[in-house]
Amino acid sequence: MIFRGSCHCGQVAFEVEGELARVTECNCSICSRKGALLWFVPREKFRLISGEQSLGTYAFGSRTVSHRFCSTCGIHPFGEGVDPSGNRITAVNARCLDDVDLSSLVVEHFDGRAL
After folding, report:
1. What integer pLDDT is reported at residue 8 of this predicted model?
2. Can you spell out the DSSP letters for 2-61?
3. So which residues are the signal peptide here (predicted)?
4. Which residues of the chain carry a pLDDT beneath 50?
5. Is 71 in contact with 55 (CB distance < 8 Å)?
6. How many structural domains does the chain have?
7. What is the CATH number of the domain that holds 6?
8. What is the distance between the alpha carbons of residues 66 and 78, in angstroms, rounded to a whole number?
9. Residues paired with residue 17 on neighbouring β-strands, in sequence order
10. Do the beta carbons of residue 56 and residue 71 sit within 8 Å?
11. Would you say 23 and 36 are in contact if contact means Cβ atoms under 8 Å apart?
């Protein structure tokens, strides 16, 4: 299935392919403040449609994840990084996807504060 998503103002738009059933809610200092529900997909399943020039990047701590945000509206639609096996991944904020019933998703909790 292909999902489409964007930031609030629409400058950053993307599509992602996969089966969306589970998301991760991380309690680290940035994810808890953003309220993100993260769907991790292989990088090749994610395609940025527009907004490369509008994207800002924020990295902290170990700097293994680049948190991407729209420099106009401030919304964080996705992040980029590497999984423990060394594969490039994209962490899509499911709250930025169009027409997704978030209440139907299984939410797994991740203790990012403990890292």
Report:
1. 97
2. EEEEE-SSSSSEEEEES---EEEEE-SHHHHHHT--EEEEEGGGEEEEE-GGGEEEE--T
3. none
4. none
5. yes
6. 1
7. 2.170.150.70
8. 9
9. 2
10. yes
11. no
